[in-house]
Amino acid sequence: MASNSNSSNKQANNPTDDAHAELTAQLEELLNTLSNKFAGVSSEIFAKMDEMSRRLDNLETQLAVNNRDRNAGPS
């Protein structure tokens, strides 16, 4: 009789184990999705920062040329 009791306990735990496994799988999927979205947003931010850096470099160059031209003035 003890074996019947053990097998019924295993069957009773089975739905709980299945629920835990399903929850774990869903959480892993959610974390993977969030990780992918975060990676995408991060790469977009870095691309925009690179673009801003390039534009600032161009602006600094133009300002330096304008200052040099103004200081040289008519001779």
UniProtKB/TrEMBL annotation:
GO terms (BP aspect): cellular heat acclimation
GO cellular component annotations of the record: cytosol; nucleus
Keywords, alphabetical: Coiled coil
InterPro entries according to UniProt: HS1-bd (IPR009643)
Region Disordered, annotated ranges: 1-22
Keyword Coiled coil tagged: yes
Transmembrane intervals: none
The keyword Cytoplasm is assigned to this record: no
Gene Ontology molecular function: transcription corepressor activity
Coiled coil: 42-69
Gene3D superfamilies: 1.20.5.430
Family named by the database record: Belongs to the HSBP1 family.
PANTHER family: HEAT SHOCK FACTOR BINDING PROTEIN 1 (PTHR19424)
Protein name: Heat shock factor binding protein 1
Organism: Lasiosphaeris hirsuta
Taxon lineage: Eukaryota, Fungi, Dikarya, Ascomycota, Pezizomycotina
